[in-house]
Write a structure and sequence with these properties.
alpha+beta, 19 strands, 10-stranded mixed sheet, elongated
Length: about 375
């Protein structure tokens, strides 16, 4: 079937047929990252892809040392040929110093519709932005230096692109595909989804809800998909590999959050999943001298500074409260002071609410919302989740 006759998201349902196809004149490089000489990154995800492609004779498995220009194989010392399609497992950027894949990394990440917030000092960041919306992975706890970052919410990123370089007799250039994440959980989740037929069907349904593909969309030329991958807290993260090995279909939740596809004229059509009525619930606790909040479903316990915790308690109980009453309850005004708070006091409250919103956004995984908002006509603050 020709790509321009594939309707809707059938290409996603039949991903390996349409996006990683067998082509007579081309072979595939499956690029897998390693640390040092023997430490395999994304090992479980690689096992899924290896099993999926086990009968393919057109796929070469290539192991690239992350962030290193020292090739791990003689074939990696020269740029990839025009007859080689490339499938990256994990973010392509750590492969950019490898001569064979440097150009392909630039084609995928350098021309991406999404913008990564990578540090200027090098390395890979924890956020990607589509339009005005920023998606960021959530760490259960900030790791000590050198320790692995444990995340219960991450984002898997599917990149699909045709390069422009091609032979005169060819309709299009080599294919570039990336199945990666902002972190390891995103890579694992997306690999699990794409190697499971039932999950691919669900992914296609979610994608259609975000963006219905039209005649002017050129998905085969360039498409990107951002998929939230989330486990329900620390215990679920502890057990995820064994749960997946046992075939647990509910080991993690996933949701298509954004899609970007190239139009006929070369511009991008970027769509973000519309907000539904929130079904979050806030839970608060004090334990071992720590003030903690959890947003369920899906969230894990996060620490809050005492004043933010006190403010959240007040709003969680009352749902709304006038600014002057909040100032009084928080000790910013005297208990007997019945007048309106001055500008300095209101600014102090506004700063506290801004900080609380940032904390709750991280806990919810939604940077596009402000859980605590001010109703100007009624002069009250409301908590909305």
């Amino acid at each position: 079937m020709k790509e321009d006759t594939v309707s809707g998201y059938d290409w996603l349902v039949h991903f390996w047929k349409h996006c990683v196809p067998v082509e007579p004149q081309r072979t595939w490089d499956l690029v897998v990252l390693i640390d040092g000489d023997l430490a395999l990154r994304d090992g479980f995800a690689y096992a899924l892809l290896r099993d999926c492609l086990s009968t393919r004779r057109d796929v070469a498995h290539r192991f690239v040392r992350a962030w290193s220009s020292r090739p791990t194989h003689s074939d990696l010392e020269v740029p990839a040929k025009a007859d080689t399609n490339i499938l990256f497992l994990g973010r392509p950027k750590p492969s950019s110093s490898c001569p064979r894949y440097n150009k392909a990394v630039g084609e995928l990440e350098g021309k991406a519709f999404g913008r990564f917030s990578d540090p200027t000092t090098g390395g890979a960041g924890r956020e990607i932005q589509y339009g005005k919306t920023v998606f960021h992975r959530h760490a259960i706890e900030e790791p000590e230096e050198g320790r692995y970052r444990r995340c219960d919410r991450d984002y898997g990123l599917l990149f699909l692109r045709h390069t422009l370089e091609r032979k005169p007799e060819e309709k299009s250039g080599p294919r570039l595909v990336a199945i990666g994440g902002l972190g390891a959980l995103g890579t694992l989740g997306l690999a699990q989804i794409l190697t499971t037929p039932e999950k691919r069907c669900k992914l296609a349904q979610q994608a259609a809800e975000v963006l219905e593909l039209q005649q002017h969309h050129r998905w085969a030329r360039h498409v990107e998909m951002c998929v939230r991958v989330q486990v329900s807290g620390e215990t679920a993260l502890d057990r995820i590999l064994n749960a997946l090995a046992e075939g647990d279909a509910d080991a993690f939740d996933f949701q298509v959050e954004a899609i970007a596809v190239e139009n006929e004229d070369g511009t991008a059509d970027i769509r973000i999943r519309k907000e539904r009525d929130a079904v979050y619930e806030i839970r608060l606790r004090r334990i071992d001298g720590r003030n903690q909040v959890r947003v369920v479903p899906g969230g894990s316990w996060s620490d809050l500074p005492p004043k933010r915790f006190e403010l959240l308690e007040l709003l969680n109980d009352a749902r709304e409260m006038p600014a002057h009453e909040l100032c009084r309850r928080l000790g910013y005004m005297g208990q007997g002071d019945k007048g309106e708070p001055n500008q300095k006091t209101l600014t102090r409250l506004s700063k506290l609410i801004h900080d609380l919103n940032k904390s709750l956004e991280n806990a919810c995984g939604e940077k596009r919302i402000r859980p605590v908002r001010f109703d100007k006509p009624k002069k009250v603050y409301r908590l909305r989740l």
